[in-house]
Design goal:
21 helices; 8 strands; mainly alpha
Amino acid sequence: MTREQHLVLTPGAPAAGPVVRPEPGAGRYAALRRYGRRLTPLLVVLLLAQMAAAMVTTAVRQTPTIDEPVYVATAADYLHAHRVRYNPEHPPLGKLLIAAGVAVADPHYDPAYPGDQGRAGRHLLYESGNDPWRVMLWARLPVIALTLLCGLVAFAFAREVVGPAGGLVALVLYAFSPDLIAHGSLATLDAPAAGFVLTSAWLVWRARRRPVPYLPAAGAALGAAVATKMSALPAVPVLTALAAVSVVAARRSTLPAAGPGPDRSRLPWAGKRRTAGAALAGAAVVALVALAVVWAAYLAVDPRLRFTPTGPVPAVHGLRGRLVDLLPVPEAYRVGMRVQFGLEDYPWQGFLFGHVYTGSLWYYLPVALLVKTPLGLMALGVAGAVAVVAARRLRPAAPYLLLPPLVLLAVAMTGARDFGTRYALFVPMFLAVAAGCLPVPRLRKGRRHLGGLLAGVLVLSVAVSSLRAFPYYLPYANEAFGGPAHTHRLLHDSNVDWGQDLGRLADLLRQRYPGERVWLVYKGSGVPSYYGIHAADPRRVPPERVHGLLVVSDSAVAKARGRLAELIAGSRPAGEVGHSISLFRR
């Protein structure tokens, strides 16, 4: 029992010792704990079912986002041609996951199509006789399933640090995170890569007790992350170092103390050498297994490892070029790294809080996360992070919970593409686990746990905020910034408008504006005519000819310049679609 017991000497009792009498009410608390143990699995199932329902509903109702057709076409090419041809900038594992759903949908695919990866995606979805709604749903389902499994990892991680209640708090915050629901319901790579990093960190943490089974598993999860997105590479040195720490912790808990005698001074030194060797071996196991997973991902696509780039490969010089050449990875992976470095050198255009700029801002991601993370999750996550550092009994978990997301975020902040919080999806995942590790103090025995009440209110606020956003999770913003309806004034691209609402726009035009002349500026990979939207581009005709309904994606509104800005200024607002597309009347 965890509650205090009273030891009472009973008059006339045998000399064997005192009789232990439980504190009044202890039986009631024991019954509650037993009931809680039975209730926990049910709550886990209900929370994951809620998240699954939200993600499937979102997946069914959204048209393809900008990146999805490329990944789906690449997955189809893997299945039919067994080659690494399209999208070399991302390794194959995440697209092999998507391919599991594409195989079930079984769309018609032409391996001889000569276009680039973007055109190949549109050709597969809209020009090959396939149903894009059905293909996209099946392509998204494997990512949905993996996102749910990573929710179990978040639950298990927090439960092992502080107990079942902490695990449930972590799972609630994970399951109701709008960013995780939004990107976990898409056939993209951001959620899988972040989930694999979380899984690797959890397994390395578990290795503190049993290194032999868990370090290879941690290496496999780490390899899965870097075989899905190259942006996970900074996690490799962090998690391999933590693997060494886990081995040291495991050996300290199992090695016997040195006994007396003349050799006593030599035993600790010998033990230290053995411990250091074991730590290095543990780190090497994680790194080698991760490398093996990367090779296995490419071999799964093409056992002969054939690769011919379909486009020019940027030349990478200096330290970056030498680093790429030294990595013991397949040639296609090296080409992908060169493509990524080339993308980083491009002067992209960004948008933050109404300001359009060229290049990148180092503080973009922290500010975007501040806008798009529920307030309760931020408060509990930060408090939990402070707690695991400050509380002695939680401190061993601090490096595993804090170092991976901090290092990944620091590296992501140096990137050139300020396109959205999807580049930092690991942040809400680790925040949820950290929040679950927050110990709840009570003020005095017999009084209400005020700390627990406040934590409960914050957890409930996250659930309410998420439910209020349904089904528009992609443009979510927390209440401090006005909610999803105001996100387009602060952020752009995948934070708000990633082409996901073309189908909803078609429904609105059919119902409210039948027969009207429509002018469309759409940012996305969908084909408007497929959904029955027959519109012209207003930027290609003189402004005086643009009359009727002007429909503009919010990312285009945010960065409007020249003729488009004049057209919008000369129009009056007429509504919006999904908080991502604005309608104007001219």
